[in-house]
Amino acid sequence: MIKTSILNFTLEELKEDFKIKGIKQYRAKQVFNWIYRNGILEFTNMNNLPNNLIKGLKKNYKITSIELDKKLISEDGTLKYLWKTEDNELLESVFLPYEEDSRYSICVSSQIGCSLGCKFCATGIDGLKRDLSTGEIVEQVLQIQVDVSHREFKIPQITNIVFMGMGEPFLNYDNVMKAVQILNSRKAFNIAKRKITISTAGVVDKIIRVAESEEQLGLAISLNAPNDQLRDKLMPINKKYNIKKIMKAVDYYIQKTNRRVSFEYVLMKGINDKEVHLFQLISLLKNKLVHLNLIPLNPVSELNISRPSQEVIDHFQKKLRENNITVTIRKEKGTNIKAACGQLRSSHKNGGS
Ligand code: SF4
Fold first, then answer.
1. Enclosing domain of residue 273
2. Average pLDDT over residues 318-324
3. CATH number of domain containing 193
4. Is there a single domain that holds both residue 206 and residue 155?
5. Which of 107, 114, 125 to mutate for ligand 1's pocket (most ligand atoms within 8 Å of CB)?
6. Across residues 277-288, what is the average pLDDT?
7. Which residue owns the Cα nearest ligand 1 atom 7?
8. Is the CB of 353 inside a 6 Å radius of any atom of ligand 1?
9. Is pLDDT above 50 for 284?
10. Which pLDDT does position 344 carry in this prediction?
11. Which of 63, 216, 229, 277 is the most exposed place for a label (fewest CB within 10 A)?
């Protein structure tokens, strides 16, 4: 009998499913509590449930469906996890602690591989294998929360989620949005929607859809080129959704949500770091409610691209600031394990969506 992952369900859905199976609906809340409040990943250990119910749950459902393959620990506390799925695929997540401001962030994957084939990205090299299920997305957070917890399950509490791991989250829209609901649910992780950021290579129709939902989600655009000619080459999705269409959708998003949109620009030596690119970038972003993240490229061994000198990076930042554009240079974390979120799958991290 095929078991359903319990992490695929919102609480309301689980109550409904329990009802269909003849299980009292209040039991769903208890199960949610064990999993998301106590980090219990075995039905057998849910010790306020009767034995016959535990037996029934074990017969119909599973809790975990990814298992740890490898964990890399960086000197600065960053942790990179490589998970193996039930069909033997690999996916990555990164835990990024910012102790100084009590922020604990997880960069999650939304797909295995990616169909978008950005030229600076290792994830896209082999194309898309498949979408991750809602449960597989939620489980990355759950397992990391369990792994990093000490004293009580909730310490440290995960405070931020970024969909910047493997894959394009807006091409797995339904599963990602349901995962967002569970991450946000007060009965599960209780992470505020404004602390959940979706990074996209520019899937315009989904940017509009999120804007219309008026969800207070964070939105990040992986831009990486300030003109269509270059962006067509670096990010083939630009042929479908060009810069003009993206900027129009971003304006609409800002108008609907009144939220600042982040742009990511991976600086690549000799490719998008020239003076002309800087001026095009300024004219695209000037006078908009945006924040620009400059990301010096994390070299991908399979690709022959490097980052510009520090002088060029600083020059970009200075000129952008002079034009009143809010800009930061992404602080590198986990460099000794090549695990910064911008590097996670080796590209999305490198500036991937
Ligand atoms: S950068 Fe992001 S969207 Fe582009 S191929 Fe890599 S994972 Fe896909």
1. 66-343
2. 97
3. 3.20.20.70
4. yes
5. 114
6. 97
7. 167
8. yes
9. yes
10. 40
11. 229
**297 close to ligand 1 (CB < 6 Angstrom):** no
Is the CB–ligand 1 distance for residue 349 below 6 Å?
Answer: no
The pLDDT score that the predictor gives to residue 150 is 74
Do residues 106 and 201 share a domain?
yes
Atom of ligand 1 nearest to the CA of 353: 2
108 and 160, same domain (yes or no): yes
Q: Which atom of ligand 1 is nearest to the CA of 116?
A: 5
Please tell me if the CB atom of residue 346 comes closer than 6 angstroms to any atom of ligand 1. Answer: no
Task: Taking the CA atoms of 236, 239, 244 and 247 in sequence, report the sign of the dihedral they define.
Answer: negative
Q: What is the pLDDT of residues 24-62, one digit of tens each?
A: 999 999 999 999 999 999 999 999 999 999 999 999 999
The verdict on 56 and 75 lying in the same domain is no
Q: pLDDT value at position 152?
A: 67
Q: Flag whether 273 is in a domain.
A: yes
Residues known to be catalytic:
92, 341
pTM recorded for the entire structure: 0.93
- Do 312 and 327 sit in the same domain of this protein? yes
Residue 337: its pLDDT value, please?
65
Our answer on whether the CB atom of 203 is closer than 6 Å to any ligand 1 atom is no
Query: 5 near 112, Cβ under 8 Å?
Result: no
What's the pLDDT score for residue 351?
39
User: Residue 290 and residue 287: Cα distance in Å, rounded?
Assistant: 8
Contact 307 CB / ligand 1 (< 6 Å): no
Could you tell me the distance, in angstroms and rounded to a whole number, from the CA of residue 347 to the centre of ligand 1?
6
pLDDT higher than threshold 60 for residue 304: yes
177 and 257 in a single domain? The answer is yes
Residue having the nearest C-alpha atom to atom 1 of ligand 1: 352
Using CA atoms, how far apart are residues 262 and 9, in angstroms rounded to an integer? 30
Nearest ligand 1 atom to the CA of 235 is: 4
